[in-house]
Amino acid sequence: MATGKKPAPDNLSPEILQAVEKGDVARFNKCVKKGANVLGLDKNGWNILHHIGYHNKYAFYRSIVLEHTQITTLIHQTANDGSTPLMMSCKPIPPDIRLIDAFVRLGGDLLYRDSHGRSCTDVTSDRNTRNYLSWRRLHTTGLPDAVLEEQSTPKNDVIMQFLRSFTYMDDTFADRFEKELKKKKEKSANIRIIFLGHEGVGKTTLCHWLIGQKVKDGGPGSTDTMEVNLSHLMINKATGEVVFLPEHDVGRTLCHRRLRDMVGNLTLSDMPPQRENNCFIGDMAYVNIFDFGGESLFTNFQHIFLNDDAVFILVFSLHNCLDELAIVDRVYFWLKFIASYSHGKYKPPVILVGTHMDKIPPADRKNTLKFVIDIIRNNPEIDEIYQNHIIEFFHIGNKTQTDSEREIIWKAILKSAPYQAQWGQLLPGSWISLEHDIMRLRNSSTRVMTFKELKERATKFGVVDVEGFLRYMHTSRTILSFPSDDEPGQPIPLDMKIILDPAWMIRAFRLIVTALKFHLQNLEKDDPLLIEYQRTRRLKREFIDRIWRMHDVKEGFLSHSETLLYFIERSELIVKPVPTGIPTDVDTYIVPSLLQPADPDLVRQYLKDKYAKTSSTLCIQFQDKFVPEAVCDKFLASLIYRFKVDDATSLCIQRGIACFLLTGDWKMIAHCRDRMIKITLFSENPSPQPFTNGKQLRGIVTDLLDSTLRRNDQLHLVYKAYLHHNFEVLQEDNVLEPSKVKSMLHSDRTTKLSKADYDFWFTMQPRPKTAGKGANASSGNTSGVDLTREPSLKQMSHIAKHIGDGYVLFFLELGMKNNTITQVRQTNAALDFRSQITRTLIAWRNSRSQSDVTLSAIVDAMNATHMDSAAMMSELSPNSQEAEKIKKSVCDLCLPERRLREVEVDIVARSIGTMYVVFFIHLDLEDEIIREAELNHHGEARNMKMHLLHTWLQRNGKEASVHRIMMASRECDIIGWKELADKLRPK
Fold first, then answer.
1. Where would I find the Death domain in this sequence (predicted)?
2. Are 578 and 833 in contact (CB under 8 A)?
């Protein structure tokens, strides 16, 4: 806690201040010997630590604090404007994060605000520093000492490498990482080369030539998504010599490298020189090459691999770029995209390559080059990017390349490599060894492994912190894994799947969403499944399995279909909408990037026709000039997963715009375009119930956006919330700061906003309450059910029937976290919606004290989110009409009162479908028993259901009747329940 307490009245002398400014330790000590007071203040109330922070003098601080320990007592002292030394250390451009960390270790308060209300985060304009401050607030142990020691300059590069890989590890990770480094440490040396450019400009030809592969006459043809050459190349960091490794040599090379890693404390120079393919192994960097398709379709998933840890080779055609403006536009697009990751000169690095030079007459080449560069750099924004990121510009012919040109480009790649974000990252030596072992597995066509299998391999190399290693590998996109970033410290399940080859996942995705010309290589043009997909852009599981089955022998897609679909969905390339009552909808996916283009006129006309009442508009505006369209696609995917799409409207869902159901009266429009996201609520009811969940909804929106940015390495994109009056994103939008709207008592013609609009989104609104037993009369409860009791499992399954479109808001009212709600649904993705809600209610019960888990709390939450609690309570009553209706329908079947036979178990198991959780709950099986069966029979749904039916038979003996089976079937509303009855009726 910062204080305003002042030390001795002596002022800081000009001489001592000059010593601090110059970082002159000798001069500082000389001043102290002459009697200078190091605890004094200047006229602004700054102490010596304020000045050290302001002048960014970390080395100076480290030198003097050992001898003058009394200065550490000044860390909480505030200046005249309320600022602390810690705040002052955040102001330089850029700050030295080592100094900030040192001040925090002294006790500097990261949450303190000065007299102007500013925090440390507010006073810095440096993105890296803001990221560090966010991380440091959650990690009290601070940065590992080894990382601070390796950070020998104020550039913060080593620190940011650590944070980039391990931001979401728990607070004890730094200590564990430190211990791993003490055993043996090494620096990573991987070069990721990513080829980008418009379709048909020669990217693949250039890639093949660069790695020594012969290109067939007429070129390699259009690249269908992406080609990857992983770890089959090495380059000597000292000489620039490139080694092209045959696939069978990769494992042997990696074994040599692992041997060197495991030698112990010997440095490379202490070891006998070992060569592999005539190169010293220790001087080698591994090269991964990614060649993306140039069609616009393929830009929708390139972001999975695109980050600042790469050397970008941006390719365009010199021959026809002046005639085809789309080629230059694509150069603009990719330069803006790459610049969105910018964090310093040449970070990330770009090599610009103009191809087809041999198609230009020799006399015109010089002028053409000048003209092309002038066009590219004529745009001031692009010119700035060009100067900051283009390391080299080459022009080559596609049929006249020479070995010397290839050597020059490889040297440019090597020159660019140190500007990659993760180049030279400090890592435990055992991690490097395990990484190479994973590469060997991948090159032997191992696609998937479990976390348990990874831990077993890690043991062989002495890797203790396997979770930390896993996050490092995922961050670098060497592998893909999705441990929860929202619950750091939670153990990773041993059965969690890991994809060793991300390119394999992309190939699987490409096959199901690729352009029509590639689909026709696998399906007939009049294939009904293909026609339906082209019409609706919705993927049915039958369509996916059909495509993957054709490639299963070579790729194994169908064999790993569940894993692939999970990862593709977690990457937000596809999304499962909230299930309807139709069982087949559980296996339906939407591809947000392939939806029809947005038409806001449809929304506008719809609102006009319905005379809808609308809310003010919440605007999320990114501060960056360029935001990839994939951000909008992925954010929309998050909304589609959590809120039910309003199929009743004519607009339904399009790319970047959708209408969702929130509560009985209220719907939500989301419009995403360029660097703006807008959220607007509307109601077709002219006098709707007041919507009191605006602040919670805003929290959901920002949580989803943060999760999307985090999963895709785009947390560098900074945004702010504003207010507006129009649902549509327009270029001339004049959005307002919320603080301005807060002070506007009445709306005017220009803004059409007032304080009420601020309150709608930023203030918690009062809720209707039932208040326990006494609520029976006030809430209209005539069911005879005690509201203070904890609901039973069966009651939870009944309640779940009435928790509809506003389920997210409902569970937030019950006190659950948005992340937890999402996790429960993801874990139970194969179930119908009612079962998912039942499981979420169980999760809520298990996370609360018994006194908080009451029917009263559920009724309150339903009322607050405009759900029909009266209908729900009526169904729970002892004389429920719904229960009587079900009982009568089963009695009308005239089935004999007999025990279910063993031979009938399989018949019932095949009929249950995705609602088996509710089915077995109504057979009085505990959820723990059901979960155990799911775990023991993972991927074997029919066997799992048969096991549970046998358990039920053993428990209930003669009471395990056909009648009870049919009652549970009717309760679940199983499609085909009458057919099941016919099969159980005696012949």
1. 792-863, 901-973
2. yes
